[in-house]
Amino acid sequence: MEQSSTLGVIVVGTGFVADSHLAALRSRADAHLVGVVDVAPERAAATARAQGGVRWSTDLAEALSWPGVAAAIVCTPNDTHSALARQIAGAGCHLLIEKPLATSVADARAAADAFATAGRVLAVAHTHRCYDYARAVRRAITSGEVGRPRLVRLSVLGGWIWPDWRGWMLDGRRSGGHALHNGVHLLDVVTWWIGCPPVSVFARGHKQTSSELDIYDHLEMVVRFEGGAVAVCEMSRGHRPATLAMRDVFVQGTAGLLTLPWDADASLLIDERGPGLLPTVASDGFARQLDAWLAALHGTAPPVDGHDGVLAVALGVAAERSIVAGAPVSVADVLATEPREVPA
Ligand SMILES: NC(=O)c1ccc[n+]([C@@H]2O[C@H](COP(=O)([O-])OP(=O)(O)OC[C@H]3O[C@@H](n4cnc5c(N)ncnc54)[C@H](O)[C@@H]3O)[C@@H](O)[C@H]2O)c1
User: Fold this and answer.
1) Which of 94, 113, 280, 292 could bond 303 through an S-S bridge, CB–CB 3.0 to 4.6 Å?
2) Which residue CA neighbors atom 1 of ligand 1 most closely?
3) Predicted TM-score (pTM) of this structure
């Protein structure tokens, strides 16, 4: 296919996660990379070279005016998301933006509203929804195999945060705090699995790596849902050994239970017929996420739309507030107390 007949995309922010999006984009025949943007010129230039000599800039406005640009993938620090999203909507482009959509509900709403007004597709990269494990659990729930979920336990335990994490990730004012930065993956995916509106979040934070950390590197978060289901989430980036990447899932439903331990390839479903393994697939979550966003440009629902993105931010903010308050925080209160309008 000729490049000019495919969707022209820019990638904004060329740090760690951009590589996964760029790799997914390279495999597409219906989209191509026009260029990259980063406030750090050396990083933008190096990425542009590595991507075969595409254009680069430190200025998003300039990149949005390059010929053929119709869409953007934003991979910048969390506190930059809302303003960049609104600029991209204002230029009439579609957007796949990294999670969280913003660091406050008001900013997240402003971004989502800008896309609704512009009539362009906004998708938020809550990538866990596109991973095989999360899709297997969701399938077992929506097919009725485990019945209605009553209790979900999800642990995602990662290794030592030093020395990989840079300034903004360790600065709660820039990341929104760890519950919003990384905890939001779990908060979003359990809400997607359970399929009912979340009512409250009760969270505790621990500083495992160092008591001098500005963020909590180990989180316990309990989410209560309308209808009575409960999700117990544990998220860590402070465990030893440094290479640890452990994930554990347990779902108790009205018809049976599902477990997906970290060392297993397939979920074990136990219902009245006895235990059985669910079929496995092996796909790339970032490629699947890109696929779903590009499909949404042709009319299908985006995998995580602006509404989901706002709700996920509200859950993360509720968790952050709960850690401070030492008590459950109502999601409705978070959605109601954040002002609807923010300055442009
Ligand atoms: N979906 C996932 O699984 C996943 C995984 C990791 C990170 N993330 C998210 O991706 C985003 C980026 O994280 P990262 O780990 O790649 O960070 P990073 O620090 O490695 O990269 C961020 C890049 O953005 C650039 N940048 C900063 N402000 C900018 C601006 N205003 N305009 C253009 N460029 C700017 C920085 O110079 C840097 O190169 C964050 O929102 C993070 O939460 C998501």
Assistant:
1) 292
2) 127
3) 0.95
Q: Using the 8-state DSSP alphabet, how is residue 36 labeled?
A: E
Query: E strands of 278-319, at which residues?
Result: none
The domain limits of the chain are 3-127+288-304, 129-283+315-335
Which numbered atom of ligand 1 lies nearest the CA of 14?
39
Task: Say yes or no to pLDDT of 308 above 60.
Answer: yes
Residues with CB under 6 A from ligand 1: 12-18, 37-40, 43, 75-78, 80, 98-99, 125, 127, 166, 181
- Which tokens sit at 53? 């000599």
- d(CA 216, CA 207) in angstroms, rounded, equals 5
Counting residues of the chain whose pLDDT is more than 90, the rounded percentage is: 83
Number of other CB atoms surrounding residue 300 within 10 Å: 12
Question: What is the pLDDT, as a whole number, of residue 340?
Answer: 54
Q: What is the pLDDT of residue 228?
A: 97
Place of tokens 């993105």: 309
**CA terminus-to-terminus distance, the chain:** 39
Dump pLDDT digits (tens) for 45-85: 999 999 999 999 999 999 999 999 999 999 999 999 999 99
pLDDT > 80? residue 2: no
Q: Please list, in sequence order, all residues whose beta carbon lies within 8 angstroms of the beta carbon of residue 326, skipping any fewer than 6 positions away.
A: none
| Spatial distance between the Cα atoms of 57 and 37, rounded to a whole number of angstroms | 5
**Closest listed residue to residue 235, CA positions, set 215, 247, 219, 221:** 219
- What is the CATH T-level fold of the domain 129-283+315-335, as seen in this structure? Dihydrodipicolinate Reductase; domain 2 (3.30.360)
Q: Tell me the per-residue pLDDT of 29-49, one tens digit each, with 9 for 90 and over.
A: 999 999 999 999 999 999 999
**Homologous superfamily of the 3-127+288-304 domain (CATH):** NAD(P)-binding Rossmann-like Domain (3.40.50.720)
What phi and psi, each to the nearest 5 degrees, are found at residue 205?
-120, 145
Same fold flag, 3-127+288-304 and 129-283+315-335: no
